[in-house]
Specification:
The chain has 151 residues and is mostly helical. It contains 6 helices and no strands. The longest helix has 63 residues.
Amino acid sequence: MKKESKLPKTLVNAIILNLKILLKVKNDSELAEILGVSQQNISFWRTSGTVNFTLILEKIEDISIDYLLTGILPAKLSERFSDDKETNKIIMLEKSFLKRIEFYEEEVKKQRIQIEMLKEMIMSKKDFLKDSKEDSNYSAVAETKDTYSPR
């Protein structure tokens, strides 16, 4: 059995959204019905970061991987695209939502990097303070030895 590569979840969501646009469906259950899978399969794709491209290519005539990844519709499929205003509103909202998710994922990554940098700074300061405290204890002991003289 061939092991599938994990995709970023935002890419999987974009692929599913592109399928919905092409097939003129509004939700995962309608998409699942057309693909001949359960809605749980679509949810699994989202959570696992995998997409069954073989199934999609078998079920949907003339679809291209390029379209799935980019959302750019080939000329031969353009007549199948919906001008339905309600569908387009949903699609625009989903795309907006996906962009927000991507933005927040990037922000979280940046914050994690900053946290790691702060942890390193704190640890280095703790080490410095520990070393300087040991040095000052050593100096105090050395001074005591120098000034102490038995009578």
